[in-house]
Amino acid sequence: MKFKSIKGTKDILPDESYRWQFVEQTIRSVMHAFNYREIRTPVFEETALFARGIGELTDIVGKEMYTFLDRSGSSLTLKPEMTAAVMRSFIQNNLGEQQPLVKVYYIAPMFRQERPQAGRLRQFHQFGAEAIGASHPYIDAEIIVLSAEIYKALGIKNFEIKINSVGCEQCRPSYKDKLTKHLQSVYDKLSEESRKRFGQNPLRILDSKDENDRALTNDAPLMKDHLCEECSSHFSQLRSILTSLNIEYQIDGRIVRGLDYYTKTAYEIVSNDLGSQDALTGGGRYDLLVKELDGKQTPSVGFAAGIERALMAMEKQNLFSGEQFSPKIFIAAADSAGKDWAITQAMTFRQSGISCEIDFLERSLKSQMREADRQKAEFVIIIGENELRNGHVSVKNMKTGNQTIVMIKDLVNHFQYQEGKDEPGKKD
Ligand code: HAM
Fold first, then answer.
1. Which ligand 1 atom sits closest to the C-alpha of 114?
2. Model-level pTM?
3. Is 83 in the pocket of ligand 1 (CB under 6 A)?
């Protein structure tokens, strides 16, 4: 039997990992520019954390979590998202007592048992940020701008920011009644999925992708038009801050998000380049979550974004940023004396921070040269008994084809100068 990777999971192969490294480095540098520091939490948590945090009636908790009993009978879940896990860590480690506003980011794998398709995996990767401890819409704006800046830094152009307000515990219940009444009149014509949502979370019918559902809910009341004074003022302040920051956005009253913890701001960044799974980013404010998880009420806002989807958008826009890794030096040995020297010299280069490869497959000099070329080594050192006797080697620059003679004892220095982009011999 041949083993295969699990459905909905993907290998990141050596030929593509440089693109992931580029994306991750870019994310880190933008996050640091905004003064967010990294948090890493375990891959699994107690199941109840997600059930309570995300909401029992959500799709994630109801049908998508990878939940299992460990050998001692505890119910554990591979994290389907980071927000609940970060809040657990925030509460457990008293992070709020060390500073009034905690700004953290993450890059991590997530797990959801969804039906795999383009842009939808069962193990996928998110980057995201959470700002825990501030209620002013300035910080909602910062989160939205931060996510957009990352796409800009990656070179992604075709994306749209859609914002909404999903209200709070004051204004949402009465709005929900209005919506339910409205939906009753079209209930029989709704899709099966939406009919199921009717009794559980009717707001989610608004973000149904089904064309017919959308037409039927065209004139449904929207939360943004039924906000209490506080939510309404928060939403209008957010809009004017975004405008003052020259951020283009659209108001989309249908954005409700698939997780239960949101209050006030909810937003998504979408791209037409992604097909049906068009959401690059999802996020918003969740002022009640920390309390829900038995901490002190702490106003918070954040976002998360799929790395695979960012890479898909980059591919679609022909952005192949980042550089494939290749060794600086390949030592090609002409004979067995050369091979003995090569393995020791390679270690010396590596310990000096200069990447170096040698031949392990007993190939001819000619095929070692071909291999060096295939691996895109910058330089090839040719070594054999003659060179060893004379104390110098020939160094071939693989880009220009130029060959120089370098004393063996000077080799490390020679390449360290190269590293500093100074030509050897030209230093005073
Ligand atoms: P979410 O909307 O569930 O929000 O996920 C955020 C992003 O993760 C999506 O926009 C998408 O790019 C990516 N994503 C989600 N599921 C998959 C999948 N199966 N395959 C590939 N990519 C996927 C959250 O997770 C919230 N925790 C966001 C948040 C943070 N809200 C506040 N803070």
1. 19
2. 0.94
3. yes
* Residue 214 covered by a domain: no
Do 406 and 336 sit in the same domain of this protein? yes
CB-ligand 1 contact for 128 (6 Å cutoff): yes
In a domain, 196, yes or no: no
Q: How far lies 281's CA from each of 277, 307, 410, in Å?
A: 11, 10, 52
- Pair (370, 296) in one structural domain: no
CA distances from 59 to 150, 229, 401, 410 (A): 28, 31, 60, 64
Same domain, 232 and 94: yes
pLDDT mean by block of 10 residues, the chain; 428 residues: 95 95 97 98 98 95 97 98 98 96 98 96 98 98 98 96 97 96 94 92 92 94 98 98 98 95 98 92 98 97 98 92 91 97 98 97 97 97 97 96 96 86 45
Last residue of a domain, one of 293, 316, 339: 316
**Sheet strands side by side (includes 75-78):** 44-46, 75-78, 67-69
Q: Which numbered atom of ligand 1 lies nearest the CA of 82?
A: 27
Is 217 within the bounds of a domain?
no
Q: Could you tell me if residue 406 is inside a domain?
A: yes
Any idea what the CATH number is for the domain that residue 51 is in? 3.30.930.10
Q: Is 28 helix (H, G, I), strand (E, B) or coil?
A: helix
Using the atom order of ligand 1, give the atom closest to the CA of residue 119: 21
Domain with 414, as residue range(s), is: 329-421
Q: Is the CB of 81 under 6 A from ligand 1?
A: yes
- Whose CA is closest to atom 1 on ligand 1? 282
Q: Are residues 281 and 349 in the same domain?
A: no
| Domains contained in the chain, number | 2
- Residue 140 Cβ inside 6 Å of ligand 1? The answer reads no
pLDDT score for 428: 37
Q: Is the CB of 271 under 6 A from ligand 1?
A: no
Q: Residue 155: left (phi > 0), alpha (psi -120 to 50), or beta?
A: left
Centre of ligand 1 to C-alpha 54, Å, is 12
